[in-house]
């Protein structure tokens, strides 16, 4: 079966959204790192409602959750491509995967800083 590009604006966007939704569903249901990050995002959302954070705090928190999930998804894609191209261990592939994991680390660290900035003053 050959892929046929849909050049119609409306139906093409709908198909793109469908593929994106399917990709998000695959990430959440098959990748353990995404499951953990998604669960933390839900916990932080519940925490935000519990403490009644401000609109600005919601914006920062939502951006942090989205950043971590997005970068984690890209990291997963890099890992899957690397494993597909070179299934056995290779030093350069390992280097590439480490860099992608480092990007997740930076995103997660940013999210932790945002979370601490929001919740430490509220709790203490």
UniProtKB/TrEMBL annotation:
Substrate binds at residue 72. Mn(2+), Zn(2+), Cd(2+) and Co(2+) support activity to lesser extents. GO terms for biological process: phospholipid biosynthetic process. The chain crosses the membrane at residues 34-53, 99-122. Keywords: ATP-binding, Cell membrane, Kinase, Lipid biosynthesis, Lipid metabolism, Magnesium, Membrane, Metal-binding, Nucleotide-binding, Phospholipid biosynthesis, Phospholipid metabolism, Transferase, Transmembrane, Transmembrane helix. The keyword Heme does not apply. ATP binds at residues 31, 79, 97-98. Signal peptide: none annotated. Its cofactor is Mg(2+). GO terms for molecular function: ATP binding; kinase activity; metal ion binding. It is found in: Cell membrane. It is a multi-pass membrane protein. The keyword Hydrolase does not apply. Its main location: membrane. The active site is at residue 72. GO terms for cellular component: plasma membrane. A divalent metal cation binds at residues 31, 79. Belongs to the bacterial diacylglycerol kinase family. This is Diacylglycerol kinase (ATP). The lineage of its organism: Bacteria, Pseudomonadati, Bacteroidota, Flavobacteriia, Flavobacteriales.
